[in-house]
Design a protein that fits this description.
This protein is an all-alpha fold. It has one domain. The protein is built from nine helices and no strands. The protein has helices spanning about 1-20, 25-35, 35-75, 75-100, 125-130, 145-155, 165-170, 175-200, 210-235. Helix 1 (about 1-20) runs antiparallel to helix 9 (about 210-235) and helix 3 (about 35-75) packs antiparallel against helix 8 (about 175-200). It is elongated, with a radius of gyration of 18 Å.
Amino acid sequence: MLTTVAATGFSVAFIHAAIPTHWLPFVLTARARGWSRPKTLAITALAGAGHVLVTTLLGLAIAWFGFELDEKIGAAFPWIAGGLLWAMGGFYFWRQWRGGGICHHHPPGGHHHADEHCVEPHEQSHWEEELKDTPLVSTKAGELAAISGLFIMLTLSPCEGFLPIYLSAVRFGWFGFWVLSGILAVAAIAAMLLFTWLALLGFGKIEVKSLERREAGLLGGLFFGLGVLVVLLER
């Protein structure tokens, strides 16, 4: 059961971090400011660490709440956890049905093109246009401002899709929590570094637009399946 939850968590974290919002800003900023590849990858890893840390802290609160709830309601907990996972799956399916599915992180000073519900379908990422006039790529802005902006952009937008995974592993206690936290860190940072590295090497036509448009549907399917598994195996 824990292996299945861990595999699902890895998939969720990797899919979420593979979309361009998690690596394209680093590539564009590096090109504009003339950063070397090692420096760009180091900054990407730093921002990824902040992203993972905030998500883990939120997961800690969810895990603690789940432990308390499990202790009080016992056998009913799998149904509650499964129900919450199905609800999350339904929400992501609805978001996908609305037309596109993800909420873009956007840089400080940038302009977001999606509507207020972040459901506009994107035929292409808008990052080049959004970053064009921001301090991140301005030659007048300092290095610290650019690095801080990228760090804050990801740190203040945790991987919300991973949070239900913590709830599904409550029965495994703190061991399960730390296993999932490690998987989150490995999957998210690895995906960010991989796609940043590929883009820096010149693979400018990395086909991730379809993944970007279908992220919500993929996450919905994973959450729904995990909810079924939690109920069946715990029974």
